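Summary: Need help interpreting a holo structure output

Steps to reproduce:
1. Submit the protein chain below together with the SMILES for flavin-adenine dinucleotide.
2. Request a joint structure prediction with the ligand placed.
3. Inspect the structure token block that comes back.

Expected: a single structure record containing both the chain and the bound molecule.
Actual: see attached output.

Input attached:
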Amino acid sequence: MRKILIVGAGQSGLQLALGLQTRGYEVTLMSNRTADEIRSGRVMSTQCMFHTALQHERDLQINFWESQAPKIEGLGVSVAAPDSSRAIDWVGKLDGYAQSVDQRVKMAGWMETFAQRGGQLVIHGAAVSDLDYFSRTYDLVMVSAGKGELVSMFGRDASRSPYDAPQRALAVAYVHGLGPRPEHPEFDAVRCNLVPGVGELFVMPTLTTSGRADILFWEGIPGGPVDAFKGVKDPAEHLSLTLELMEKFLPWEYARATKVELTDANGTLAGRYAPTVRNPIGRLPSGGLVLGVADVVVANDPVTGQGSNSASKCAASYLSSITSHGDQPFDEAWMQSTFDRYWDTAQHVTKWTNAMLGVPPEHVLNLIGAAGDLQPVADRFANGFNDPSDFENFFYDPEKTTAYLSSVTGASAGA
Ligand SMILES: Cc1cc2nc3c(=O)[nH]c(=O)nc-3n(C[C@H](O)[C@H](O)[C@H](O)COP(=O)(O)OP(=O)(O)OC[C@H]3O[C@@H](n4cnc5c(N)ncnc54)[C@H](O)[C@@H]3O)c2cc1C
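--- attached output ---
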């Protein structure tokens, strides 16, 4: 039986561990926190996952919270005008629903399942020296430790990392008591509110430790008015600031948030990081090799809500590369081709996310504006969150955008 060590029990590490376990591999999973510590700890993400990523979980039969989590059937975009009115507002329908399950609930639950099924769970914050020691006794070591210190083993790939500093300051608040969206309240949707020159506010339903809740997630352009959460330690103060900024820039979202309260004392999060693509293979001091997984190797800004989706897709892709490799050695060539196969998908996420962090060019503004009048455009944009490779067809190149919009207008006129 092949022995595999996975370091880091997040979306990618646990999904891989559970997948390999059911296929008969002897898996050791190393986590720096216990399931209880994760469950009672701080929120980590907004973790909205779209159809393809959720399907990977269903394929492994680890979609334990699917029936309880809100089904997100749409994705709305609003753009605030300088006078804080709503210049653009539309909702695209998703072909398959999205869901957000608080990572505190999911990772704690998956970790317990892994242990109950006989997996070896080691609670230990791994250092490079530990990996050096362990790598000799495993056929394969994978590092899925997110954006933590172990990324220092993987060199930054400058050719794929256009930014060397954080592009947004992040501030998350999990709340109960948010009123329904005034438009189409009959189905759940993620709302993306764009405030030009200031940042974005995302609002989405989730399943948290205390049941259904909503997340208010500000992404502020560094140095701007929303980059105001640094040093705010008191959760109540964090929520007040979140609401104050909503009242100022997005009064239509504030109007339904006047009665909210935090889900729990750990329901807030603030931070920032630079989007970075890294070389996938880490070299240990003794010469051993380790393979980086998900955020370790491709960390995008959450402005497009893709990281957990990518972690799921990376885990599914690596699982397939591992199982199809049989008993052959997991050498450097295999590690590189395993990452390259994942990068085929991941490159589209990185390209689109980095584009969304910049100032939108005119043809993109036209596209987002046109979606307000043309439902097929709104629907296609929304479904791009599930498959960002589709943006190649109508988003980056002004000529393709014009051709696409004409084709939709022509079809609508002819209908
Ligand atoms: C504010 C915010 C909002 C987001 N919203 C979304 C969204 O809506 N949709 C979406 O798809 N993505 C979103 N993301 C991104 C998403 O959460 C991450 O990309 C995803 O969780 C990455 O999964 P992972 O498995 O690579 O790493 P992680 O989920 O970060 O897991 C890594 C694990 O490794 C552990 N670890 C770290 N160091 C060590 C060590 N030395 N030894 C042992 N264990 C270690 C950590 O404690 C953690 O449990 C968001 C991120 C943030 C910050």
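--- end attachment ---

Reviewer comment: The chain has a mean pLDDT of 96. Residues 332-357 form the longest helix (26 residues).
Status: needs-info
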